[in-house]
Design a protein that fits this description.
single chain, 305 residues, alpha/beta, Rossmann fold, Alpha-Beta Plaits, four-stranded antiparallel sheet, 14 strands, 34% helix
């Protein structure tokens, strides 16, 4: 039996000063799912996140978290959420541990053992008793994540979570997020401009442009969408032949190179066909489609946040 959705956005809209910033967004996030939310500058990404956590009210539509409406049952809805929006909030004149104890004092269910566990999870065990104002940006990010997961939220929302992390820190962070999702059952909603990080981390991605979600897709489907590139002596003839005889739509990339998604067709048979038709092939290669390719295709002319 499928578990209830952790997060549901239904026809979510926001109008500010007469301009519609978010236009009817519908999203569903399930337990143990890592969800990437991407959008170019001004697309409505941050506004959507702020509506999810109740920082601003929707003009229309609803946000439901674990069955509770953010508008009508705010406390119960947000009790299921841990989040870092923009930058972690902490007292810099206190130690990392003192910050965690301050937060834990508001929730009696958080034990000292749980605090120690999350400190180890985020890799701060050797610095947690140092003052936060001595921390690097990456260390503050780790402490913020510890704060966000201490109460074992069902929904974890992270806005640019790998800011300040070095490559080793990013790898550790991905492992942590996967553990929280796949072992602890947490749903993770992550927004980032680092497309490769999202590709390596997430199960599902949504791309928002000009306030509307233009696609929601499984990351594995993007990665399995391979394209073939040919370098040959007569690109226009090859494009025509592939379309007329195989129903394959090829496009010219540059000079004498064309590209196409060949679906279930045999590449060997296509190459034999082109050669029989008098086309000389210089080389043929497979290019894996990436999340960056999809993002740039769908947001051409826009700027990545």
């Amino acid at each position: 039996m499928q578990q209830p959705a952790v997060l549901e956005l239904a026809n979510l809209r926001k109008t500010i000063k007469g301009k519609e910033i978010v236009k009817g967004v519908n999203l569903t996030l399930n337990p143990s799912q890592i969800f990437g939310f991407l959008g170019p500058n001004g697309a409505g990404k941050t506004t959507t996140i702020r509506m999810i956590v109740g920082l601003i009210k929707p003009t229309e539509g609803s946000v439901t978290i674990c069955g509770y409406s953010v508008a009508h049952n705010f406390v119960k809805a947000l009790s299921n959420v841990g989040c870092i929006i923009e930058s972690p909030d902490m007292y810099k004149y206190l130690t990392g541990m003192e910050n965690l104890l301050q937060l834990a004092a508001m929730d009696k269910k958080i034990s000292k053992q749980r605090i120690n566990d999350v400190v180890e999870m985020v890799g701060l065990q050797h610095r947690v008793n140092d003052k936060v104002d001595t921390y690097s940006l990456g260390m503050r990010q780790r402490l913020g994540i510890a704060q966000a997961i201490m109460a074992r939220p069902k929904l974890l929302i992270l806005d640019e979570p790998t800011n300040g992390l070095d490559p080793a820190g990013m790898t550790e962070f991905r492992k942590l997020i996967r553990k929280l999702a796949y072992e602890d059952g947490m749903a993770v909603f992550v927004s980032s401009h680092l497309l490769l990080e999202i590709q390596q981390m997430c199960d599902v991605v949504s791309i928002i442009k000009q306030g509307s979600v233009i696609t929601t897709t499984l990351v594995q489907d993007i990665l399995h969408d391979d394209k073939i590139e040919w370098q040959l002596n007569d690109p226009e003839k090859a494009i025509t032949l592939l379309r007329e005889h195989w129903n394959i739509v090829a496009v010219r990339l540059k000079n004498d190179t064309i590209s196409a998604d060949i679906g279930q067709h045999s590449l060997d048979k296509l190459n034999e066909f082109l050669i029989r038709e008098g086309i000389a092939l210089t080389y043929c290669s497979t290019k894996q489609h990436t999340l960056e390719d999809l993002f740039l295709d769908l947001t051409v002319g826009d700027e990545i946040v």
